[in-house]
Amino acid sequence: MNKLYTIFLYFLICLVNVLPTSCREEAQTEDPFLKVSKEKISFPRNESEEILYIQSNINYSISSDKEWCTVIQEESTSTQTDKYLIKVSENSETENRTATITINSSIKNLQIVVEQTAGYGLIVKEKSYQIPSQGGTFTIELTTNGEYSYSLDNSWITETTDSKSSAMKDYKLDFNVSANHGQERTGNITFTLGNIKETVTVKQEAGEPATVSGETPMEICTSLGLGWNLGNQLDAHNDGIAEETAWGNQPTTQALFDQLAATGFTSVRIPVTWLGHIGEAPNYTIDAEYLNRVAEVVGYAESAGLNAIINIHHDGADSNYWLNIKDAAKDETLNTSIKEQITAIWTQIANKFKDKGNFLVFESMNEIHDGGWGWGENLTDGGKQYTVLNEWNQVFVDAVRATGGNNTNRYLGVPGYVTNIDLTVEHFVLPKDIVNNRLMVAVHFYSPNEFTLNDEYSEWGHTGDSSKKPNWGDEEYLKSQLNRMKTKFIDNGIPAYIGEIGCVHRSNERSEAFRLYYLEYLCKAAKEYGMAPFYWDNGSASAGKECSGLFNHATGEILNNALEVIEVMKRGIFDNSESYTLEHVYENAPL
Q1: Contact (Cβ atoms closer than 8 angstroms) between residue 121 and residue 168
Q2: Class of CATH domain 122-204
Q3: Which one of the listed residues 244, 363, 475, 500 is annotated catalytic?
Q4: Does domain 18-116 have CATH number 2.60.40.10?
Q5: Nearest 5°: CA angle at 317, between 312 and 318?
Q6: What's domain 217-587's architecture?
Q7: What is the pTM of this model?
Q8: Is 546 a catalytic residue?
């Protein structure tokens, strides 16, 4: 009898030990109980998981009422504690969501609330816009519950406002589209919220291209308007090889030219040095890749609706390279060879662009001199260098016209010796041409250079402190120089433009005020005397000598107080009100 009792007791103990906790018999010595570690679980929007513990000595069942919320039993921590993994998938809905985990037992039922944050939502109302060629504004409406961002794949569309509704879910974004002067174009605005992307397409109709036009000097001056130079870019060179980034600027982009147009410039001068990209005689073949890059940059100007001037620039610098006027004036054989090369180079350039409209101007060359900047052997050689330059300009005109197409009547720029006004007035001979009123005389004006370029003095003009300004080159000198051009050329029906002007950025407010005054006075005078000015921008963001940057040449970013500088120059060129005279500018000089 005792033996049978012992066997039965052993069997009963083993049976109890193998029963699962969720299926325990209620016939326990202690009171039945059911407890949970949490009554509410909150999850973020992404896929997540959390542990739930249940303590019980009775049978129970557990379940979730939503598929996105699952309950997975894991290894128990003790005989009366069960461990569950509560797992939720990523919430792709735009509202918060809730699930209920229910635990049923014979003594009571428990409910655990599971909450998950709303997923990202992004709805764009309209995904396509059609804009007329003249440009304008449009509004994008979108609904979202997250911190969105957007990106543009172009620079001719810019955001103007971003207004939010009181609900903080509905947004209205206003965008501006600049005028289109080229072919139909398409841009995209891509909105991003987490992994969600929505793209809005903006199409703009083709527009009328920019053009240099007019039969009188004043008409042509007006069509050029306010100009700007892409300085230290395609004209840069090292060790006899032209390279766009050689002098510190990164490759230029469409964004810059769109910014130029947006801020009010109407023409650009794109100086080009060809050194190291020209083959041997007799063909002097220009490297195709380099010529294509020049064409690409010209295309930036065309797309932005800007007139453009391209030239041969530092190939003649100081008579150090193949455009050597110093030696050509002494050696007719060399002069003949140089003229053959001018013909070959300009024939290739002209053919490359023969189908381009009159927004594009060719300028024969830059500041040609013998190294003395107008104070060299040109003063003692009996006029030989002046004669050679006049010959070179004639060769240039003949070469361009011979290519036909739109080059037959394209406007051409021809410079005087070292582009100095005095030497141009005295020695320049206008080339013969097959069409009338298509040649423009090119000069530069940086006087007085101690103030404008070298920053040796900080003030200028009649109100400047005599100890802080040069002893020459004030307003009367400026007017007299421009008047010489007017009397010699403009009054005789010969157009002219000032291919380079400039004044470096200053580091203090008073000096900068005189800089602004100088540029406004010069631009207003240029307009009154019938010549369009082109500001020299070398991309430098610093202050002081040779620091004349208005824009980052790669991004179009505004540098320093460039908008102030541009505004005074624009006022000088475009303000035609009766009260705005050169005398008015003079009377409002810094005090």
Answers
A1: no
A2: mainly beta
A3: 500
A4: yes
A5: 150
A6: Alpha-Beta Barrel (3.20)
A7: 0.76
A8: no
